[in-house]
Amino acid sequence: MATTAPVHPVDEVPPVRQLAAFGLQHVLAMYAGAVAVPLIVGSAMKLSAADLAYLITADLLVCGIATLVQCVGFWRFGVRLPIMQGCTFAAVSPMVLIGTTGGGLPAIYGSVIVAGLAIALLAPVFGKLLRFFPPLVTGTVILIIGVSLLPVAGNWAAGGQGAKGFGEPKNLALAGFVLLVVLGVQRFAPAFLSRIAVLIGIVVGLAVAVPFGFTDFGGVGDADWLGISTPFHFGTPTFHASAITSMLVVALVTMTETTGDLIAVGEMTDRRVEPRTLADGLRADGLSTVLGGVFNTFPYTAYAQNVGLVGMTRVRSRWVVAAAGGILVLLGLLPKLGAVVAAIPAPVLGGAGLVMFGTVAASGLKTLAQVDFKGNDNLTVVAVSVAVGMLPVGVPTVYAQFPDWFQTVMNSGISAGCLTAIVLNLLFNHLPGKAGSPTKDAEPGEASATA
What we know:
Layout: H1 16-44, H2 49-72, E1 85-87, H3 92-101, H4 104-128, H5 135-157, H6 169-188, H7 191-195, H8 197-209, H9 218-222, H10 241-269, H11 275-294, E2 300-302, H12 304-313, H13 318-333, H14 335-342, H15 346-368, H16 378-394, H17 404-410, H18 413-429, H19 447-450
Antiparallel strand pairs: 1-2
Helix pairs in contact: 1-2, 1-3, 1-13, 2-11, 2-13, 3-4, 4-10, 4-11, 5-10, 5-15, 5-16, 5-18, 6-8, 6-15, 8-15, 10-11, 10-12, 10-17, 10-18, 12-15, 13-14, 16-18
């Protein structure tokens, strides 16, 4: 009698009720980051309120489509893992510069389209580089991803960067309350509820925030019921060499960051990323970025916030994140719903973010536990890579006097730390050793660090 092969947890389809709850949880985890990029770029270009709203709804729509492509996949597009897609922050500074001095939104979109095509073409090349990401490198990168996100959660907990009353005790008290709710639900609630601990924490936090005046639902009444994003709404794209060059640098940075995120999710879900699947995931990034240029939005990448949520909840189904993509599409088509989600106070997100981002860092430590640190220089690789990765996080203006292309690469702690880890691993574990030093590859257990 034929037996049915067991379904991998990544491919399991939970019941609709769970799909909706888990998916909404992923949306709430990334929503603030998703809308931040169009807000920053649009505000810098002094766009009208109507144009800003249009940018946000277009962004949410393409975020949803990009997430569906990445999770569900078709042909050679999509890694088919629980990966949430959103606008990359690495592109913010170059886009503001292009938009304000180099041709406006049409020049931004022209450079974004070219960058997306470049990502799609370079995807197979990056796929072949996977052998340079052993556990020593991937664990370090995952650790850097988590630690570099913690200041984001801290800013949220304090009230949101630039907010009036930033750092007031009541903001931190609300964030701390949400954190306690999340931990309490995860520890004491039944299995299903513990897996949506972040969602419950946000809902309870919002319920507490409303009577204390943390929320402002004024934007809900002003938002339209229906919003349709049309191609080239802000004009036909224009192509400027300087804008394209800077956006190509951004493309390399986002490919490096996405590679780290895909490998992290592969580790968490027990479905390791192979060269071909890595190329498929990056190719989906390229397609999504091209769509961003066409539908009036920006470059797309994997969101590390949601990597932490996968690790924390241990819900590994890609269909959960695909459901989140569907919710984002709805939010992009129904601006009034998006305005409701946008009304969630920053401290509520901060309390939940502390758990999620800390989980990413802890997952990096778990991966590093596979690495042999005896009689070799692997500790130096980790130490220097984390230090370089944390430098722009702790001192944001450290590279302010450097050229723009250098700032684009190094101001991202994730890409700076990732590149450092790759180079140092090659230096210490692949080049010929010092005279009298043991052969790296001959040490038992070292294969896990240098394979």
